[in-house]
Design a protein that fits this description.
- The protein is an alpha/beta fold.
- It contains 8 helices and 5 strands.
- A 5-stranded parallel beta sheet has the order 2-3-1-4-5, with helices on both faces.
- Helix 1 packs across helix 8 and helix 3 runs antiparallel to helix 4.
- The two termini are 25 Å apart.
- 36% of the residues are buried.
């Protein structure tokens, strides 16, 4: 059975690496929002919308629609899809940046992942990763404790489960997520977006 899996989390927690690892394990497709086609355009769009947070949010919402429908087509063809950020991050970041428009109403128009997992990393480790790469303004935004806590709390409410990958290498983190995905999806055949799933503990990483 193919499935659509979304990984959410703050910048620097290792989502991109885990997405690639999971896609490889399931012989599936690694995707992201806003997507490869918009990678070069994204900085220009964000610069153009620098003083309009709603416009930025709608840009990301448009990419969720596009990538979500592309993911659904892949699943219908029997391919697993693992997405690096999806709707949960889009709306959590928008709300934390002060957007008050009713973005929630858009959610019913987007394909729903079979499972959305929040990836968590110890803050010291996350900061070290951010400073070891070319940190973007968006990366640096999450160094503000108040902003970071707002985003993280919102993501917790929107995700089905949380995986703490602190201190884990890629292989162990991917193994844990694979076990969790297989166990969770085998227990239900319905979409999981509305039912919270248990947090993954360190004991789950073996």
């Amino acid at each position: 059975m193919a499935a659509f899996i979304a990984l959410e989390g703050l910048d620097g927690v290792g989502k991109s690496t885990l997405v690639k690892g999971l896609a490889e394990h399931f012989a599936g497709v690694a995707m992201s929002t806003p997507g490869d086609a918009l990678t070069q355009a994204r900085p220009l769009v964000l610069t153009a919308f620098a003083h309009d947070e709603l416009a930025k949010a709608l840009f990301y919402a448009a990419s969720v629609s596009s990538q979500g429908n592309a993911a659904r087509r892949q699943v219908e063809q029997g391919h697993w899809v693992v997405m690096d950020r999806y709707w949960a991050s889009t709306i959590a970041y928008a709300k934390s940046r002060g957007v008050v428009a009713d973005l929630e109403s858009l959610s019913r128009h987007f394909p729903v992942p079979n499972l959305t997992i929040l990836v968590h990393l110890d803050e010291d480790e996350r900061r070290a990763r951010l400073f070891n790469r070319d940190a973007t303004p968006e990366d640096l935004e999450t160094l503000n404790p108040a902003f970071r806590n707002r985003v993280f709390a919102d993501l917790q409410n929107r995700c089905d489960g949380m995986a703490d990958v602190t201190g884990l290498g890629k292989v162990d983190a991917v193994r844990t997520l694979v076990n969790y995905i297989n166990t969770t999806l085998s227990s239900t055949s319905s979409h999981l977006g509305s039912n919270p799933r248990p947090k993954l503990s360190k004991e789950d990483y073996v």
